[in-house]
Amino acid sequence: MAKPRSEFTRLSRPRSGLGTYSSLWRGSDYLLVVSSTGFNESYQRFYFKDIKGFIVTESKRYFYYNVGSAILLMLFSLPLVGKLASGMPLGLALGETIPMMFFVIPAFLVLVVNLIKGPSCKVAIATGLQTPELRPVGRKRAWRKILAKIDGPIREAQANLVTISPSAPAESSGSPSM
Amino acid sequence: MTPSSLERIHCPKCSKPLDPTSHDGGNEATCIFCQQKMQLITYPALEAESASPKPTAAKVEAGATCFYHDENEAVHTCSHCGRYLCSVCGIEETAGVTCPSCISTQRASSTETVSSRILYDRLVLGLAFLPLLIWPFTIVTAPIAVGVGIYGWRRPRSLVSPGRIRMVIGMVFAVIQVGIWAFFLGAQILS
C-alpha cells in the first residue's frame, strides 16, 4: 500500500497551548494553520495573495521561562548543595536527594531547551480583514527560517499587484530584514 | 512601505490602526495607543488595496443571467454544476470558478475548503491504548475501537498527516484485546 502523501510542507513544529496544539504548514498557494485537540483538527488558511504583512513583537516568555526554571532549579538543588557543603561525599549526597532529582532534572531541561530555542516573539499576520496571531510561531529563530521559506512565494503571488499600484515603492519588494 | 499605508495595519495588541507617525522610516513602528513596538514585514498587497477591484455585476434585461441574481449578467460558468454566475457569485479556485452551492457541497471533502476534521485514526489509537490504564474497561473500549476503525477507514483523514498507520496499529491492538477477552470469557463459561 503506497503511503498517502500530504500536499503540505511543514513550516513549524507543533506548539502546545491550553489543551490544544497548533502547527504551520505551506499549501500550494496558502499558509495553513492547523489547530488540534488530539482527536480533531481545525484549519485556518491565509492565501499568499491576501497577506499584507507580518507584525513581529517582542515576547517576555523567553525571560519568564529562564527566570522560572532557574529559580526552581536553585530551590530544588538547595538540599544537595547543603549536604555537599556539610562535607557529605557526592555519591551519598546524591543518593539522599534522589527524590529532588525528579524536580531538578525537568527544571534543568526546561532551562536548557529554552536557551537553545532562543528569544521568543509573537507573530501576527496582517490581512485585509483581520490581524490574527500566528500561534505556531513563538521563537525568533524559527520565525526567520519560516520567513525565508514563505517570503518568495508570497511576493510571487502578489507580483501582479505591484503593477496595479503605481504608489508601491521599490522597497516593498526587497528582501525582508529582522 | 509608505507611512500612509500603515493605517491599513492594525496593532496586534490593541487592535487599533497604526498611525503614520508611528513609523520610524525603516521596518519598525510603535503603536501610539498601547506603545507596543513592532517589526513590520510588508508585501505589495498592503499598498495595492485601494487599487483592488470590488466585484460588481452589470444589470441586463435579457440574455444570459446569473442563476442566483436574475438581473445580473452571467460572466462565469460553475466548473462543477454548470450554473451561470455573475461576477459577484463566481468564486475563483485553483481548478476554475465555482458557485456558492458547490462550495458548500464540496466543503467537507476539498482540501481547499474544509474547516475541520475528526481524526479517526487517533481516536482508534486512543481507544485502544488509553483504557489500559484501567484495563477492565478494555472489555468495552476495544470493540468500540474496532467499530470506530471500521467506520472511519474510508472517512476523510487529516490534511497534513493522511497516513493510516495509527489506524492500523490501533485496530490490530484492539482486535488483540477483543481476542484475549473472548478467550478469557470463553474459558470461564466452559469451566
Q: How would you sum up this structure in a few lines?
A:
By secondary structure, chain A is an alpha+beta fold. Chain A is built from five helices and seven strands; from the N terminus they run E-E-E-E-E-E-H-H-H-E-H-H.
Classify the helix fraction of chain A into a percent range.
Answer: 40-55%
Q: How would you characterize the largest beta sheet of chain A?
A: 5 strands, antiparallel
Fraction of residues in β-strands of chain A: 15-25%
What is the radius of gyration of chain A computed over CA atoms, rounded to a whole number of angstroms? Answer: 23 Å
Mean pLDDT of chain B: 86
Number of strands of chain A: 7
Shape of chain B: flat
Helix share of residues of chain B? 25-40%
What is the overall number of helices of chain B? 5
Mean pLDDT over the full residue set of chain A: 85
Order of helices and strands of chain A: EEEEEEHHHEHH
Gyration radius from CA atoms of chain B, angstroms: 28 Å
Report how far the terminal alpha carbons of chain B are from each other. 84 Å
Largest interface: A-B, 58 and 47 residues
Oligomeric nature of the chains: heterodimer
The poorly predicted ranges of chain A are: 163-175
**SSE order of chain B in H/E notation?**
EEHEEEEHEHHH
Strand content of chain B: 5-15%
Shape of chain A: elongated
Structural class of chain A: alpha+beta
Distance between the termini of chain A: 45 Å
What does this structure look like?
- The complex is a heterodimer of chains A (178) and B (191).
- By secondary structure, chain A is an alpha+beta fold.
- Chain A is built from five helices and seven strands; from the N terminus they run ββββββαααβαα.
- Chain A has a domain at 61-117.
- Chain A is 43% helix and 21% strand.
- In chain A, a hairpin with a 3-residue loop joins strand 3 and strand 4 (30-36).
- In chain A, helix 1 runs antiparallel to helix 3 (98-117).
- The relative contact order of chain B is 0.08.
- Chain B has three domains: 3-51, no CATH class; 54-115, no CATH class; 120-190.
- The longest helix of chain B is centred in the C-terminal third of the chain and has 26 residues, at 165-190.
- Chain B has 191 residues and is α+β, with helices and mostly antiparallel strands.
- Chains A and B meet through strand 4, strand 5, strand 6, strand 7 and helix 4 of A and strand 2, helix 1, strand 7 and helix 3 of B.
- Strand 5 (40-47) of chain A pairs antiparallel with strand 7 of chain B.
